[in-house]
Every structure is written in structure tokens, then in C-alpha cells.
Amino acid sequence: MRYALYFAEPATDPLMQLGNAWLGRDTFTGADLAQPEVNGLEPARFSELTTDPRRYGFHGTLKAPFSLRDGQSEAALVEACEAFAGEIAPYEIERLGVNRLGRFLALTPEIEEPALQAFAALCVRRFEPFRAPLSEADIERRRKAGLSPKLDAYMTEWGYPYIFDELRFHMTLSNKLEDDGEAALLKDAAEDFFAGVTGKPRTCRHFALYAEPERGAPFHVHTVFQLTGSVPPQDALQQSVRLSHEENE
Fold first, then answer.
1. Would 171 disulfide with which of 17, 85, 88, 107, CB 3.0-4.6 Å?
2. DSSP β-bridge partners for residue 101
């Protein structure tokens, strides 16, 4: 069993409904969904181009998948999520848009979103006590990507390289796209499909715990937590960093 902390909304939110439909799987129920039609692409090909994000479920990564450290439990993790949600205040982002992220298609922020970046960094730090160390196999798999010294250091210390200042927040919509023609068709279709939830401000009031029953199995939503606290993410992050420095002195 692995867990992950993801940016997600309740099942009734249009963003989740559109994302689940685009990927062809409901992350709340596990049910297969009919994907939208993409002009110029056969349905089977569209399905092939979305296999990886379909397995992980529609989401934006906050704390990447991890196994529980010895001595920790799912119940304790859920309790920590509930306490965290009761402490941190909702925050605003200006807008998401459909963009290319390298060879992938994703929903990404259109401008810098400091509150979202702070919230993600805070999730990495706050829930680190629950994360088991990476296996040697996982470390070697990551290093095959040719990580920079900074990314390698983040991976070995925090379990995932693309965090803090290296985070490029995204909600993945495709596998790696090698064909520029297919990429263009998907981007045009996604811009139309997600038009109702892109290009506008959003108040972020939730995050979710996802679970993977066994390696390679589809992730599903375990629990969605509502932010009901009063501490802005940036303030909470500053406090977390300060306490960490004091403990290490």
C-alpha cells in the first residue's frame, strides 16, 4: 500500500468531473468513464495516450506516493490530515490553463501561484514523518532520469525530486506525447473540454489522500479534506521552516 497527498476537489466539483471524464476513470468509485471525442483521434488511440494519468487518477501532486514508515499507520495518517486541514486556511489561485509541460499535456498555473507553491511545500514537510525511506530500486529508477545534484539531494532527503523551488505544479492529462500532431489535437480538444474551469480564479479549499492498494494498481481517493483553518499556507510554511532550522541547530 502506498499513499499520496494530492491537489483534488470533492467528486461534485466540475474540475474533478471533467478531469475524471478526460482520463476515463472515476477516482472516487473506480468506475470506467466514457472519454470525450477528440477530432482526428480514434477513441482507442485517445485511451492509449492517457493510460498513465488514468492509473494515478486526476490530481496535482503535493506529496508524491510513499509507503508508510515503520510504526506509522493509515489511521494516524488520516488523523494528521484532519488536524492539518483544521489548521490551514483556504487559499486563492488566479487561473489554470491547458499547457504543454515538456512532452506532456497538463493543467498548469498560468502565472506564479505563491500560495499553491507554499501549500505543496508545506505538505512535503508536514507529512514527512509518515514516509518510509525509498528503496534502492526506487532511487536507481529516479536516477536514470539524469537528476541534477539539487534534484538528487531532494530525492534522497525527501523522497521526490520535484519539490519546493523545483515544483512545477500540474494536473497531468496525457502520457508522454512523441507525435506533435497528436499533441496538437489533444491540446485543442482539452482547451475546449476544460474551458469551464480554466482561466478564472479558484478558491482552493480541499486536498485529498489517495491510496494505491499495491504497486501498479490504480490509485483511488481515500478521503478529501476541507481546509477550515486560519493560517495562510505561506505563514505556516515559514513557521515550519523556522522550527526545522531551530531543531537542527
1. 107
2. 104
Can you name the residues that pair with 172 across neighbouring β-strands?
Answer: 106
Sequential pLDDT tens for the chain (249 residues): 999 999 999 999 999 999 999 999 999 999 999 999 999 999 999 999 999 999 999 999 999 999 999 999 999 999 999 999 999 999 999 999 999 999 999 999 999 999 999 999 999 999 999 999 999 999 999 898 889 999 999 999 999 999 999 999 999 999 999 999 999 999 999 999 999 999 999 999 999 999 999 999 999 999 999 999 999 999 999 999 988 877 776
Measured CA distances, 162 to 73, 148, 159, 169 (Å)? 26, 11, 10, 9
Would you say how long the chain is, in residues? 249
Secondary structure of the chain as H, E, C letters = CEEEEEECCCCCCHHHHHHHHHHCECCCCCCECCCCCCCCCCHHHHHHCCHHHHHHCCCEEEEEEECECCCCCHHHHHHHHHHHHHHECCEEECCEEEEEECCEEEEEECCCCHHHHHHHHHHHHHCHHHECCCCHHHHHHHHCCCCCHHHHHHHHHHCCCCCHHHCCCCEECCCCCCCHHHHHHHHHHHHHHCCCCCCCCEEECEEEEEEECCCCCCCEEEEEEECCCCECHHHHHHHHHHHHHHHHC
C-alpha cell of residue 109: 498555473
Could you tell me the three cell numbers for 106? 497538463
**Can you give the pTM of this predicted structure?**
0.95
Residue labelled with grid coordinates 507553491: 117
